[in-house]
Amino acid sequence: MAENSYDIAVVGGGPGGYVAAIRASQLGFKTAVVEREHLGGICLNWGCIPTKALLRVSEVNHILSELDKFGFTAKDVSFDVSKVVKYSRDTAKTLTQGVTHLLKKNKVDVIDGHGKLAGKGKVAVEKDGKKVADVQAKHIILATGARARALPNVEPDGKVIWTYKEAMVPKAMPKKLLVIGSGAIGMEFASFYSDMGVDVTVAEVVDRILPAEDEEISDFAKKSFEKKGMKIHTGAKVTGVKTNKNGATAKIETAKGKTEEIQVDNIVLAVGIVGNVENIGLDSTNIKVEKSHIVVDEWLRTGEPNVYAIGDLVGPPWLAHKASHEGVICVEKIAGLNDVHPLDTSRVPGCTYCRPQVASVGMTEKEAKEKGHKLKVGRFPYRGNGKALALGETEGMVKTIFDEKTGELLGAHMIGAEVTELIQGYAVAQTLETTETDLMHTIFPHPTLSEMMHESVLDAYGRAIHF
Amino acid sequence: MPVNVLMPALSPTMTEGNLAKWLVKEGDEVSSGDVLAEIETDKATMEVEAVDEGRVGKILVPEGSEGVKVNEPIAILLQEGEDESALDQAPTPPAAPSGNGEAKPAEAAPKAEEAKSATPSSATSGSSGAAGTQQMLEKAPPAPPAPKDASGERVFASPLARRMAKQAGLDLTQLKGSGPHGRIVRADVEQAIERGVGAPAPTEAPAAAEGKAPAAAAPAAGPSAKEQAEMFGMPYEEVSLSSMRKTIARRLTESKQTVPHFYLSIEVEMDELMKVRKELNARAEASGDDYKLSVNDFIIRACALALKKVPAANASYNGNTALMYEHADVSVAVAIESGLITPIVKKAETKGLAQISREMKDLAKRARDGKLKPEEYQGGTFSLSNLGMFGISQFEAIINPPQACILAVGKSEQRPVVKDGALSVATMMTASLSVDHRVVDGAIGADFLAAFKKLVEDPLTMLL
């Protein structure tokens, strides 16, 4: 049995853990990562990346469906599900190998197995139920991530009732699909299957889809999805699911109190996540767990000295880039670097890669009002933008929210083609604390979608030029 | 057409002041150059002179008014042949530049000066003066310029921080940035507003600082003086603070909280100096010269010469740099009825004892009359505080930022001293130097005191 001693041991090799480990090694710490399954975690293997590959495929399918618009004629266009899935899996595999290489290059030891706290400064590593290593470390960073939450009356069975994992590797395309939950994960799968020709129904318990987004964006998205044939029930509860030989029947209690029963081939359960807090040695420590997530302070410190937690294992937003950033903050703080700042969750951009895409950073209009800000709100529609017209993507809008007094960019909310690539402009603006003036003075290249970002700012002050 | 008398800016950074006293009343005839009113800033009282001939038609701002904005009309002057019925023809007052808290002090000042220079023309061409002012206001740039610190270096601050500081009337050069490479960000400005630091420097908008003063004076912990007095039923009389008192409170709180002070003391034998002083004064009297040297005059000169010998003590901490001053501008603390003020003997190293003595007398007199000009008490590279005349043997003073040193001297008195192994009596004085450790170290402070001691104990060298 190997016994190793490190400055920093990271439990979990996802986007939080491996980034923390690389940064630690850069700072001169002797570092190890304990990973039980795949380096890169859910994000690379079963999350962000493979779903983006799938959504690229469905986008291609969508473009093929309107070839006529661009002057093409094509006959007998079809796809092979197994090849679609292979494209997605190959993409994930390439990146996982990339992470392995990065860790090696940065001299981070990777220990294969399930890590758990085993007393002060100790991580016990097990593989297949047998102890394979005892790791000693001055600092331990827990980054074990999260998994899909189940509903009490809807248990995923992996065959008919899927979580994200099965939904990513379908053996055959369902004809009818029910997606429960309309957060980012739910809407990405709904969008993928819908664009692949599946009859999709979405059930969301809250009164709007994409509940984390600005209300106006939620409404826009709902109309857009419905236009492409999706059925969306908001304020609706799934009260019962029964599997049968043709798939499953689901009872949906709608907002109006009526109960509808629908027959579907498959169900995707996407109602949030729970932190992986079990079996990582938290018992008999001072580490506090609230609602399946570990409680940490601004520097990611748990209740136990020299034990830290980052990413999905701690508080929201549960996003890969937030986990990575926390990993860096945590390690730099341990190293005592100057210029380390706690994570400001209001500056974490969020992206959903459905079609139309949704991206946002900062406060929604409602949140900003609730915080007592007086607002200047600007909007600019895709149909007023030359590049959008040329792309044939005229559906979407860019909304910006400023504090009337200070001109602070409180929030930006976008829906439409490629907004996930655009939002970073506003994120930089927020980090640099620009005001509307600086954004107005910035020159945006023509013709680009980004011009809408400029126009939206101008519109907030009644100065939009092109609409 | 009637002419508005505007609130003047007494210094480039002033945005508002108190109208202390009217020296004319409605109906008085005035001619150009007559003193109309006294304006009080946080440190000085200044006179407003008439720039036009005419009759005081209406006094718009009563005496005792606080926080009168620069360029706000304070009275209306009627021209020859006009009566009170013409009053409402007075030019509509331009919006006071800082009326809505929008204008930055530094911007307001040039405008005020322009407005002032424009006013005389209104004597001949009626409203064109006010119209000119209006135009200049409209031309004012909308974005606050990047501020510069004392050395003219750009102060790095986010656009949002800059705007928030402007709105709160904070001086960005006084703030420390917590952003990348010391950039001032929103959080720093919010913190400064909360703590009341970085409020405008002296003569800048005292009222802007007033709102925050309680926060600085009463930290969150513990009850305020008033709360405690109420709690325990302690009888008291509540007296409002003068602008000067508020400035003293703010500046010295800031100094003691942000400047790492250390203190050095030295004993200086004064017998020789007393002897030389007596002799020089006797000669002056005999020859009818108009000076009478005080011990303090000698000490001012000794400070100046010691600073030239140890220039490292004549410095200011400036964030990433230090400023090493060329001249010894000695700020001398003068106690006056309403508080304390530090008129400056500039380039004191170039001035003889007689000149220092004459200047100091004039400065002290005008300080007590509240008639110092801002440039006469702002600036200075080194401070001197002397409580000898109050019978104090020894004390330590609070540094007068951004200066690095202040010398506190006590009374010259006979003390037992040991000389050559025997006890004897000598006239001794204790001098204590308070030092900003960020820029001046103990050895430099000690060098300065040694040089000072040498000069005082051998006063003839001071006459060279």
TrEMBL record, chain A:
This protein's cofactor list reads: FAD
Q: Which residues does FAD bind?
A: 52, 115, 312
Key word Cell membrane present: no
Catalytic activity line of the entry = N(6)-[(R)-dihydrolipoyl]-L-lysyl-[protein] + NAD(+) = N(6)-[(R)-lipoyl]-L-lysyl-[protein] + NADH + H(+)
Q: List the disulfide bonds.
A: 43-48
- The UniProt record lists the FAD/NAD(P)-binding domain at 6-327
Q: What is its main location?
A: cytoplasm
Source species, domain of life: Bacteria
Q: Which UniProt keywords apply?
A: Cytoplasm, Disulfide bond, FAD, Flavoprotein, NAD, Nucleotide-binding, Oxidoreductase, Redox-active center
EC no. given is 1.8.1.4
Residues where NAD(+) binds: 181-188, 204, 272
- Which residues are the active-site ones? 446
Record's subcellular location: Cytoplasm
Q: Which GO terms describe its molecular function?
A: dihydrolipoyl dehydrogenase (NADH) activity; flavin adenine dinucleotide binding
Flavoprotein as a keyword of this entry, yes or no, is yes
Kindly list the biological process annotations in GO that this record carries. Answer: 2-oxoglutarate metabolic process
Transmembrane region(s): none
Q: Which residues form the Pyridine nucleotide-disulphide oxidoreductase dimerisation domain?
A: 348-456
Q: What Gene3D superfamilies has UniProt attached to this entry?
A: 3.30.390.30, FAD/NAD(P)-binding domain
- Spell out the GO cellular component terms annotated for this protein, sorted alphabetically and separated by semicolons: cytoplasm
Q: How is the cofactor bound?
A: Binds 1 FAD per subunit.
To which protein family does this belong? Belongs to the class-I pyridine nucleotide-disulfide oxidoreductase family.
Q: What else is known?
A: The active site is a redox-active disulfide bond.
Against NCBIfam families, the record matches this protein to: lipoamide_DH
Which protein is depicted?
Dihydrolipoyl dehydrogenase
Which species does the entry assign this protein to? Ferruginivarius sediminum
Gene of this entry: lpdA
Automatic annotation (TrEMBL), chain B:
A Pfam family per the record: 2-oxoacid_dh
Extract the PROSITE patterns matched here. Answer: BIOTINYL_LIPOYL, LIPOYL, PSBD
The protein's required cofactor(s) are namely:
(R)-lipoate
What does it catalyze? N(6)-[(R)-dihydrolipoyl]-L-lysyl-[protein] + acetyl-CoA = N(6)-[(R)-S(8)-acetyldihydrolipoyl]-L-lysyl-[protein] + CoA
Identify the EC number(s). 2.3.1.12
Q: Where is the Peripheral subunit-binding (PSBD) domain?
A: 156-193
Extract the GO molecular function terms from the UniProt entry.
dihydrolipoyllysine-residue acetyltransferase activity
Cellular component, GO, one term = pyruvate dehydrogenase complex
**How is the quaternary structure described?**
Forms a 24-polypeptide structural core with octahedral symmetry.
Annotated signal peptide? none
Respond yes or no to whether keyword Transmembrane is given for this record.
no
Biological processes annotated in GO: pyruvate decarboxylation to acetyl-CoA
UniProt region (Disordered), positions on chain: 83-152, 200-224
The UniProt keywords, alphabetically, are: Acyltransferase, Lipoyl, Pyruvate, Transferase
The UniProt note on the cofactor reads as follows: Binds 1 lipoyl cofactor covalently.
What name goes with this protein?
Acetyltransferase component of pyruvate dehydrogenase complex
Family membership, please give it: Belongs to the 2-oxoacid dehydrogenase family.
Fetch the SUPFAM superfamilies from UniProt.
CoA-dependent acyltransferases (SSF52777), Peripheral subunit-binding domain of 2-oxo acid dehydrogenase complex (SSF47005), Single hybrid motif (SSF51230)
